[in-house]
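Slack export, channel: ligand-projects

TW: morning all. Re-posting the request from yesterday since it got buried. We need the structure predicted with the small molecule present, not the apo form. The ligand is zinc ion; the SMILES is in the block with the sequence. No rush, but it would help planning for next week.
GE: picking it up
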Amino acid sequence: MSGFKTTLISCQQCGRRIMVRAADAERGSIVCSHVGCGAVNVLQSAFLYDEVIVQGLPSFGQLTYLGDSGATYPLRFGSNVIGTAEANTVRVDRFVHNGRCFISRRHCTLTITFDKWKGQLRYHLQDGAPEPGSQANQPSLNGTLVDGAPLLKTEVIDVNDQSIVTLGGLDRFRLTHFSIPSTMLETYKVALDYNPDRTE
Ligand SMILES: [Zn+2]
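GE: finished. pasting the full token output, ligand included:
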């Protein structure tokens, strides 16, 4: 960790100041030296990745239908509204079972963000979507499951690579993340002055 500057942080337990040296930062933790405390303070990495990287990515991953069609649906950065409506970011086919389609027109919202600390894309899923021109989330009729677990109406969860998203109880899709190549990441790495007070 070249260029590391010795710095002071506030102890996460007692709030008093502790001096952090390069060796502490490399170890990733420092024990508070104040009498009666001794808390282990976890130190975070002293660099991040420039979010500009997302402009040059060739893909943001995809959903693959686990059924006869095997259709794939590319995703975009930001909000992806998924459902059968024409105007959606991800317009899925009307898969019909016993004469009915169980997927809502605006069924769920998959939001892709860039985690600048980890240097990877994150995929957050919520059942439902706001109606156009509205902020209020409108849940789907038949619900959304991730790896078999139903999402609560207001829940937003991180969906892992290769997880199975089930819409309306019957139609299953595999989520494939786009993994940013480490060689590309290295060129977007930005060294920071050590900042232990940051929050994710
Ligand atoms: Zn302390």
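GE: first-pass observations. Residues 22-27 form the longest helix (6 residues). Residues 1-43 form one domain.
TW: perfect, thank you
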